[in-house]
Amino acid sequence: MAANPAIELKDVSLSFGSNQILTGIDMSVDPGEFVCVIGASGSGKTTLLRMIAGLLTPTTGKVFSNGKPVLKPSRHVAVVFQDYGRALLPWRRAFANVSLPLEASGMPAKDRPARIRELLAKVGLAHHEDKFPGQLSGGMQQRLQIARALAQEPDTLLMDEPFGALDAMTRQTLQDEVLRLVSERKTTVFFVTHDIEEALYLGDRVVALDSNPGRVAYDIKVPLPRPRDQLTTREHPEFLRLRREMFEIMNKIHA
Amino acid sequence: MIAALTKSWRGWLFPVLVIAGAEIWFLFNPVLSDTLAAPSKIVSGAIETLTDGTLLKTTYQTLVAAAIGLLIGMVAGTACGILIGLARTADRLSSWSVEMLRPIPSVALIPLSLLTFGYGYRMEYAVVAWATFWPFLILTQHALKQVDVRLMEVSKLMGFGIFARIFKIMLPAAAPRLFTALRLSVGLSLVVAVTVEIAANPQGLGYGLMVSQESLRPDRMFALLIWVGLLGWALNYGLVWLEGRLFAHRAPGAVASA
């Protein structure tokens, strides 16, 4: 018998009053798969992520995580928000921010420091544990949020345009770091972005959403070899072909 | 602090001129007044209150009464603010009571408090606590509503229970606003404590002022009056300084040394 999908959406719709946000979403993400969701703003991609996180309940249809219906947020599913400045606790130093999920899971206080330092080292913040989020650059704050998410030891990582607010150089560095971190633990990733190249570079699969109401327009496999590389992957003929195809798809959607 | 004082010397110009003018006026009009005193007389009055122990004793009494009353008002007000801020039922049940009780001036409770507790610290605690309860109640309630929704989502995602949510996320997030309530209430507690002492309670700086007035000693009265003003100023100055120390690191782009 095949393992349960990490994420499964069955005929999911969501509306606020008469405003239909998402309709008829059927989607399944295998364990360990890296799925990127792209769509214009207003296509409901963030809403979709929030339903998988258990922060929103669909109007109709069902959301499953590892075969279990999602009724509320679970520790096995971690979220990384785009607005790291709002998602981090500004009164806690980097160290204590990473400590938060460990406190939530009831890890004994004496076991936490080692785990926190290991996580901070993983995201390259080993020397910044005493800084407050406000004292870190945007890229470092996003790294901190990723470390906090990893502290949950999630099976599934939901990322909502995590690099949208960062400059191009920082974005590429963080893309590679995320790929490395999730491949270590075979974490399932649901990654929302509006950047076609980012989606192709990171994903095993790219799902494009059509808007008004949001629905799945295309679902494409990305058969590019791993590990990915900022130069060779982006110059790979298949990458270029898919990029063209995706651009055409997105243009057609938004025509 | 010295730098701050010298930098704003222009602000000192006016009071210094007033004091000098008053001294000169009294020099040429050496009247015995029951209501006014020359600045030099006020200085000697101040030295007198300091050496005979009045100043220290009454200051201690007023500060203790204000501080403990404030503490009671703060704990009760914050606790009720949390309850009303978080539980819709509590909000509905209390809305009328809050609107009815809040407008009662704290000073109007002096007779009741006197009847209940008699003279002494306890009646003063009660009135100060009443006065400071409301700013904490209202500001806590509002501060909790203004906690960023993103932080509330984070706490949901972490799977925190209600107490962890309050103490790990909501109260720390609301802390700067709660500190504003504290700053407001510290000033209020001093005002109310002195008022209670003037109106009823035979202790503290307010009573000292009354005694000076009744014994026709405007010099001592003015000395105590200026001292009360200085106390209020110093408390506020200290709290503003503390506020900066406590919350500076929260601002984006905060200095790394904070």
State the main characteristics:
heterodimer, A: 255 residues, alpha/beta, Rossmann fold, four-stranded antiparallel sheet, B: mainly alpha, 11 helices
- Provide the succession of SSEs of chain A: EEEHEEEHHHHEHEHEEHH
Mean pLDDT of chain B: 89
The CATH class assignment of the domain at 55-205 in chain B is Mainly Alpha
Biggest sheet statistics of chain B? none
List the quaternary state of the chains: heterodimer
Based on helices, strands and strand pairing, what is the structural class of chain A? alpha/beta
**Annotation, overall tally of beta strands of chain B:** 0
Account of the protein in words:
- The complex is a heterodimer of chains A (255) and B (258).
- Chain A is of the alpha/beta class and 255 residues long.
- Chain A is built from 9 helices and 10 strands.
- Chain A has helices at 45-53, 84-87, 94-104, 112-122, 138-151, 168-185, 196-202, 232-235, 237-253; strands spanning 7-16, 19-29, 34-38, 60-65, 68-69, 77-80, 156-160, 188-193, 205-210, 215-221.
- In chain A, a hairpin with a 4-residue loop joins β9 and β10 (215-221).
- The radius of gyration of chain B is 23 Å and the shape is globular.
- Chain B has a domain at 55-205: MetI-like fold (Orthogonal Bundle).
- Chain B has 258 residues and is mainly α.
- Chain B has helices spanning 2-7, 9-28, 39-51, 54-86, 88-101, 110-117, 121-145, 149-158, 162-199, 204-214, 218-247.
- The A-B interface holds A 53, 55, 72-75, 77-79, 81, 83, 85-87, 89-92, 100-101, 103-105, 131-132, 134-135, 152 and B 148, 150-151, 153-154, 156-160, 164, 168-169, 172-173, 175, 249-256, 258.
